[in-house]
């Protein structure tokens, strides 16, 4: 394996039998470097990357250097991370992502893994709070998540709760965690316990990692929570004070790198987890309590499109994708608008049985298409206003609805039914965050 | 004119010579209502809407009612709202939108207007702070704004500054105000004074209207500001305390209805306007000062597309729109990702001379495509990371860049040049707003 190496250098390394993770020596002029061959991501094909014993990585021009193999990498850990099959109080389902990535210090490679053994090794305190059963379902980066996988996750959740788990933790990459949370939420009409999606923004090899606190908190929540809803749990602040469980259909990743990137939009989160005290503090009383059985229906039709409107958008673009879609979610401007040119297109789409729903690219607040003429014309063209639903949540709900209705009227009815709290009718001043400029 | 009326009722009203704004009487059973005929937006074709003298609107079933015309609506105001031609210190260019909408109490119709006379009539205090010249350039709702109009606005701005205005105010609908702000910003490489886009979230007939405070503040800012940049000025808080001028390329409408909907993303705003004291308080020192001349180049190529990535997106959708686009801005997940399936499509696009740039749907933070494998593969496929630029700003910049470069390398170079502060390299903890959940 020579990840990242190309051209002459890759051939040269191969010819010497050198692979990533092997211990090598490089001599060049008066310089001599010894260390482990690391993957290279340089644009320069001639750069060789070595992790030295002092922990630093160094990149050197290979041309003119004398390379020698000192020793092959250590044999890989062959333990197969599998479910232990124990009837744990808390089931952890791993799908991949930063939270379950283990950096192999020997090679620098990032390996997704989360067997029960490895969790207990990584976070031994967890066994003091719950009996854990962990299982690797997928090992994918969340940007590669797909509707088919949502169904597999939902099935595993049902199986786990049916077997008696008090709650299920889903370790997930943060990129698309809120989409998956919505998908699982729409898949269950009743659950015996909560589903807690948990991720991390910084991998466990970094001092600022949020992995262990988030995972620890998610286990507390899965076991102790009075609610049986789908939640996303992440850091509550950039410091390690507490974690927050957001309602899965009302949360969004709002920052590329902060540990408190996930925030509830247009709604109050479900709970805070005071992880230093092992307690859950509910932030709202109107949650769905634990049910008697697990009723699941997890089908999705991915023939949808999320159209983000902007000035100058060409209506022909919509015509071009018409035959590939059964439904569209618009992220319109302001209260739910597009330019009036689109009225004709939407009228044609809805007439031909394609659902067209409106959300706002403002994210906060709710659409109201009765205020201005443009909105009223879009309403007349059959565009369905989707209240304060997030564009992403609406899209996932549309995939679910298309798989559960025969015609556009049926889809519309499902889209407008408040299934799992995706609509919040009670907005107040406190739901909008505060910016401070001084 | 019988806006909103259809079918039998429309024909019946027409046969009686009744139009919107006319005074009518409706008798039905024991009920008798007198008032002004209002536009109807009911789905029920039989509903007639009347504004009564007490100010309330009432909707009545027309079938079986006895309708009579009492008097025709008052003749329309025939003053032509035009530029006064005076060499005002502050030029106000009106493009339409809520801020310049005047509700005619007689008819309920919303009429965009902002002649100098009307402004002074509406906001007489303005003449105490500046000599105003106002002009109506367009009267459109901002959701109908187009790249062609941006050029016309830029030309009018140049003309006004060249004639000696200390600053220009552009009254604009809030829906697409930040897109226009970016467009004007990219159109000027030097300006002698500021351009202040101003809008309002609530029309002037509502007690909670922000129209007058925002307009008043924009005039103070246009006259007094030490900077010559394009700014968006709106309420700073939901209360009337102060207004804020955001850098036009770093601002976004973040709420559908709040008066403080506009917020700076990834940057500190330019200034606060303490309108009760007629003063401008700068929030940063690194602004662009007033220049010696006005250098404008305002061309846009609208053959772009803003693609908002989501799990399950079909790569064929991109193929379908390929022939309609010269460039794409992606709103990817997290640090700048899409599923790996898209790698091939993007490689093909960039090879065929279509620019593909990456922003993040998180909005806050910056893309970094070197952290995970997916990002690195997209980089190799030719996708260009666009730092902390907002997706909308990047899209407008792409339209400008496509009109100013011959090939994809030229476009890339322009896209990566920090022209007017669209990239901010100095992020800090304070730029992320705070959510409070208790």
TrEMBL record, chains A, B:
Listed EC numbers: 6.3.5.-
Catalytic center residues: 98, 174-175, 253
Domain L-asparaginase N-terminal: residue ranges: 90-284
InterPro entries per UniProt: AsnA_fam (IPR006033), Asp/glu_Ase-like_sf (IPR036152), Asparaginase/glutaminase-like (IPR006034), Asparaginase/glutaminase_AS2 (IPR027475), Asparaginase_C (IPR040919), GatD (IPR011878), GatD_N (IPR040918), GatD_N_sf (IPR037222)
GO molecular function: asparaginase activity; ATP binding; glutaminyl-tRNA synthase (glutamine-hydrolyzing) activity
Domain GatD N-terminal: 18-70
Record's keyword terms, sorted: ATP-binding, Ligase, Nucleotide-binding, Protein biosynthesis
Catalysed transformations (reactions): L-glutamyl-tRNA(Gln) + L-glutamine + ATP + H2O = L-glutaminyl-tRNA(Gln) + L-glutamate + ADP + phosphate + H(+)
Domain Asparaginase/glutaminase C-terminal positions: 303-415
Gene Ontology biological process: amino acid metabolic process; regulation of translational fidelity; translation
Entry keyword annotation includes ATP-binding: yes
Family classification: Belongs to the asparaginase 1 family. GatD subfamily.
Biological role stated in the UniProt entry: Allows the formation of correctly charged Gln-tRNA(Gln) through the transamidation of misacylated Glu-tRNA(Gln) in organisms which lack glutaminyl-tRNA synthetase. The reaction takes place in the presence of glutamine and ATP through an activated gamma-phospho-Glu-tRNA(Gln). The GatDE system is specific for glutamate and does not act on aspartate.
HAMAP family (UniProt xref): GatD
Subunit structure and binding partners: Heterodimer of GatD and GatE.
Name of protein: Glutamyl-tRNA(Gln) amidotransferase subunit D
């Amino acid at each position: 394996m020579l990840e990242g190496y190309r051209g002459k250098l890759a051939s040269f390394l191969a010819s010497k039998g050198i692979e990533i993770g092997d211990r090598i020596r490089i001599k060049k002029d008066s310089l001599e470097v010894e260390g482990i061959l690391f993957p290279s991501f340089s644009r320069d094909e001639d750069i060789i990357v070595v992790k030295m014993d002092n922990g630093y990585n160094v990149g050197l021009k290979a041309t003119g250097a004398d390379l020698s193999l000192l020793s092959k990498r250590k044999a890989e850990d062959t333990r197969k991370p599998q479910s232990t099959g124990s009837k744990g109080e808390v089931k952890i389902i791993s799908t991949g992502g930063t939270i379950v990535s283990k950096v192999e210090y020997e090679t620098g490679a990032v390996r997704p893994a989360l067997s029960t053994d490895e969790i207990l090794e990584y976070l031994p305190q967890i066994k003091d709070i719950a009996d854990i059963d962990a299982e690797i379902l997928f090992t994918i980066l969340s940007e590669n998540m797909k509707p088919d996988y949502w169904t597999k996750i939902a099935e595993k959740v049902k199986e786990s709760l049916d077997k008696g788990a008090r709650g299920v933790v889903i370790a997930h990459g943060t990129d698309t965690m809120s989409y998956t949370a919505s998908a699982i939420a729409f898949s269950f009409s009743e659950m015996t316990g909560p589903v807690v999606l948990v991720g991390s923004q910084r991998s466990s090899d970094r001092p600022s990692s949020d992995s262990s606190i988030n995972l620890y908190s998610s286990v507390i929540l899965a076991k102790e929570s009075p609610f049986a809803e789908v939640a996303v749990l992440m850091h509550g602040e950039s410091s390690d004070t507490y974690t927050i469980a957001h309602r899965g259909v009302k949360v969004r990743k709002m920052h590329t790198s902060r540990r408190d990137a996930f925030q509830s939009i247009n709604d109050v989160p479900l709970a805070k987890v005071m992880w230093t005290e092992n307690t859950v503090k509910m932030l709202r009383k109107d949650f769905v309590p634990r049910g008697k059985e697990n009723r699941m229906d997890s089908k999705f039709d991915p023939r949808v499109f999320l159209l983000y409107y902007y000035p100058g958008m060409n209506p022909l673009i919509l015509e071009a994708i018409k035959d590939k879609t059964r439904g569209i979610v618009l992220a319109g401007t302001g209260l739910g608008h597009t330019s009036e040119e689109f009225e004709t297109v939407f009228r044609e789409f809805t007439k031909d049985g394609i659902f067209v729903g409106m959300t706002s690219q403002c994210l906060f607040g709710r659409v109201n298409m009765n205020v201005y003429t443009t909105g009223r014309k879009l309403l007349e063209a059959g565009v369905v206003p989707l209240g304060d639903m997030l564009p992403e949540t609406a899209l996932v709900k549309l995939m679910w609805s298309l798989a559960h209705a025969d015609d556009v009227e049926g889809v519309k009815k499902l889209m407008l039914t408040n299934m799992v709290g995706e609509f919040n009718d009670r907005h107040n001043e406190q739901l909008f965050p505060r910016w401070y400029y001084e």
